[in-house]
Amino acid sequence: MSTPDEAELCYPHLGNSSCRRIVRSHSVSVLLHIILSSISVLTVTLNLLVIISISHFRKLHTPTNFLLLSLAVSDFSVGFVWVFMIFLINGCWFLGAGWCVFNAFLSYVVPSASIGTVVLISVDRYVAVCDPMHYQTKVTKNRANICIVLCWVGSTVYHTVILKDNIENPGGFDSCAGECALYLPPFAGVIDLIFSFIIPFSIIVVLYVRVFIVAVSQAQAMRSHVTVVTLQSSQKVNRSELKAARALGVVVVVFLMCLTPLYIVSLTTGFGVKSTSSYIFVIGLFYFNSLLNPVIYVFLYPWFRKCVKCVFSLQILNGCCVSNVFNYILHCFTFNRV
């Protein structure tokens, strides 16, 4: 009779051709399912609130918020990726080769779109802080939407090519029945590392370092009272944009903290055939970021808290709520508190 620490077969009737799993006690297994299911539900629910808030209230239809909307859509999709991860708790995949490929494709396209969106957010904040006089002309709603569409389309096409072998040969790289293995050719792994981590990471760090330098220099200028009268209006704009940059900076820093371990593990283990179950922790940490983003919005964005209150109270169904939120957002912008 097997003990919780012994390895058992995913498919006992297949004998040695079946993968093995680690048996956990019933209480531990139930606890893990509850935790992962809760994360999945919270991720979907909170990001859905962000999507509804930005989509419904026209006052929030700004280039920056459209980027946040794109990030929320990708985070919303990650909530469903968590469902697939639940099936890998014990290291066994029971959904078949087709769903394994779909899971791999979704698991790559959605985070890649998130990475691209965070890069766009960094660019948006860089222009807003470092070139505020031309921000309105350089960063428009149409340009932001075009960049978002290109980001998602590019991510889809790129990973279709990267995962070509897996799509054409579902389950062909599994070493045993019950495994969900992903194959990345060595050159594809290197390309993915460069375009999904090194280049985005470098761009984000460089741009936010520049934003930080500008913020520090402006703070020093304000303390020393070296302010030219003709520049007062632009500095007022900068102060507002700097607050938005600080808020989004928290999102960016948390994102990088959750992303970096995944690629560090990829570098240390090399490329080739990878069993998804062996990467559960670092993958889970990266996906957990999708739950953290809307939580960050709750603490840093008063308008989001107001919108959530309207949604939960169902006041969003009448025009009164729209008017109240509009006035509240206008008040926040007037006093530079958004």
UniProtKB/TrEMBL annotation:
Keywords: Cell membrane, G-protein coupled receptor, Membrane, Receptor, Transducer, Transmembrane, Transmembrane helix. It is found in: Cell membrane. The keyword Membrane applies. The keyword Transmembrane applies. Its main location: membrane. GO terms for molecular function: trace-amine receptor activity. It is a multi-pass membrane protein. Residues 46-297 form the G-protein coupled receptors family 1 profile domain. CDD domains: 7tmA_TAARs. One of its GO terms (cellular component) is plasma membrane. InterPro entries: GPCR_Rhodpsn, GPCR_Rhodpsn_7TM, TAAR. It comes from the Eukaryota. It holds the Pfam family 7tm_1. Belongs to the G-protein coupled receptor 1 family. This is Trace amine-associated receptor 3-like.
